Amino acid sequence: MELILASQSPRRRALLEQIGLKFKAVSPDVDERVDGNPSPAQLVEELSLRKARAVARQGDGQGLILAADTVVALDGAVLGKPKTEQEAFSMLSALSGNRHEVYTGLTLLQGGREDTGHEVTTVAFRPLEPEEITRYIATGEPMDKAGAYGIQGLGALLVSGIQGDYYNVMGLPLYRLGQMLAGFGVDLLALACR
User: Alpha-carbon distance 71 to 76, whole Å?
Assistant: First the structure.
């Protein structure tokens, strides 16, 4: 089986390597604008499906395509990746002392078969002082991350707890992925024993 990751995300690549999967990464060329006002779950599912289909159009129709999209939602409002340090400061200030949700949409596509779903994890932030937020932004870590933080890095210092799949917060819910891959006949534990 050839697995094609429709992403150049270093975090997603590292997580696939962590569970022993061999894959090829391809950058999907998609328009991420969505009409209407979809829920965070609908948004990530739609975008992961678009990414998978875009990569399918670029390829030869062989292989199993995996696409994902992750957003942070606070009170139902989606927080994307900050474009400026001020935007990162605003996002982190809003997250301070609050709970928010991280949604990741996953799509597997092989031939004419598609399976799309999502995972949600609740994350609690401790109260943050403005100086802490400024210092965290100065590290550069928030600037390429949904919600302006990375739980796998220094952002872990901001998190007081999570409910759900930790790997979902990193951008690839491994439990859900394993369940979806099993539906395509891929047993990750059996592959690990080879």
Answer: 11
Structure tokens at 24: 């090829």
Amino acid at 93: S
96 within 8 A of 57, measured Cβ to Cβ: no
Q: State if pTM tops 0.90.
A: yes
Of the listed 29, 35, 60, 69, which one is catalytic? 69
SS3 75: coil
SS3 for 106?
A: strand
Q: How far apart are CA 103 and CA 101, in angstroms?
A: 6
The pLDDT tens digits of the residues spanning 61-98 come to 678 999 999 999 999 999 989 999 999 999 999 999 99
Contacts of 160 (CB under 8 A, 6+ apart): 124, 125, 126
Angle between helices 85-95 and 130-138 (to 10 degrees): 130
Query: What distance lies between CA 156 and its chain's CA centroid?
Result: 16
Q: Is 60 a catalytic residue?
A: no
Dig out the tokens for 184 from the structure: 């395509």
* Strand intervals (E) in the chain: 3-5, 23-25, 64-74, 77-79, 99-110, 113-125, 159-163
